[in-house]
Amino acid sequence: MNPIARFAATIIFVLVSGVDAIGDESGSPVQLREVNPIKGAPESRVIAITGARLIDGHGGSPVENACVIVKGDQIIFAGAQAEAQIPTGAIRFDAGGKSLLPGLFDSHFHSQDTAKRPIEYELDNGITSFRDPGHPFKFYRWLNGNELTVPRIFLCGGHLDAAPPAWPDQAAVIGTAKQATEAVDAHVARGASGIKIYMRLPAEHIAAACAAADRHGVPVTAHLELVRADAAIEAGVDGIEHITSFGTALADPKQAEVFEQVVGSDSNARREWRPRLWSGIELENNPRLRPLLDQIVKQGTFVSPTLAIFEARVGEKEATPVTASAFANMLDFVGHCHRHGAKIVVGSHTSAPFADRGKAYLREVELMVEAGMTPLEVITAATKVNSEFFGAQDRLGTVAAGKTADLILIDGFPDKNIKDLDKVTHVMLGGNWVKGQEN
Question: What is the chain's mean pLDDT, rounded?
Answer without folding.
Answer: 93
